[in-house]
Write the structure tokens for this entry.
Amino acid sequence: MSLSLDFVNNPLAGRFWGSATSAMTELSLHPPGAAGSKFPAPPPPEELPDKLCVQKISKIFDYQSQPLTVLQDVDLSLKSNEFVCLVGASGCGKSTLLNIVAGLTAPTSGRILVDQEEVTGPGSDRGMVFQAYSLFPWLTVAKNIEFGLKLQKLSKRERRERIAYYLEVVGLSRFANAFPKQLSGGMKQRAAIARALANEPEVLLMDEPFGALDAQTKEQLQLFMREMWERTHTTILMVTHDVEEAIFLSSRVAVMEAHPGRIKESVEIELPEHRELEMKSEVSFIQLKRRITTMLGHG
């Protein structure tokens, strides 16, 4: 099944609910922006407003009775529909920054804005996918996806439609009634991604989501994630240690330096939007990898 339209970022979302099947068929035959498609391609990122703004974020921890500055004056912005990866050495504060954006950790100074609204804690406008499989083991895949929808007090029909749609998106329709212990690692992570997307967040945050997977499964999930983003254009901020993964997935890579953690440079990934795994062996890809690796080596 081809991946389909994300409700959050597409202006046709309202009418999509009434005709989910026909819309999914249309998208699989005519991707957004393609000849004959009913759905326009999203505008270029430079024409879109900032979806997420990280403004002068600093974080100081108390370590052995001494202040330890983990992040200092971090500035970062993401446009609507943009996929940005954060890379940096261990200990540079990548995950701390992501937790601050998620509202799970308060900054010492600075602020986070989503759609110009200041973040003061966790909220439904941000979805989070962790490296550890964060599914509830006592719930089926479908019930895991439904959990957040119940908190939003959606009707049974709305919950049923969203569950069916996102199970199709992540290719797990056959496993709707399976429990997490019956799934492979890659399937668990796809289920976690479906659960996050079903809540229709404005920004999807991902912390090393494929870090615990074997190499083959990891590449399969990278391809899945890229294809999903090509269809949905969800705004994504993802942390990874893997430079190759960051280049393959994102439209921009933000390179962090450590002690204290801050953004050293942002690198635009000028590769075709549609990507295949074979692209990793191309000269342009290897040059980008060498450039970012060099930055990290001299951070």
Remarks:
- The beta strands are 50-63, 66-79, 83-87, 109-114, 117-118, 126-129, 203-207, 235-239, 252-257, 262-268.
- The chain has a mean pLDDT of 85.
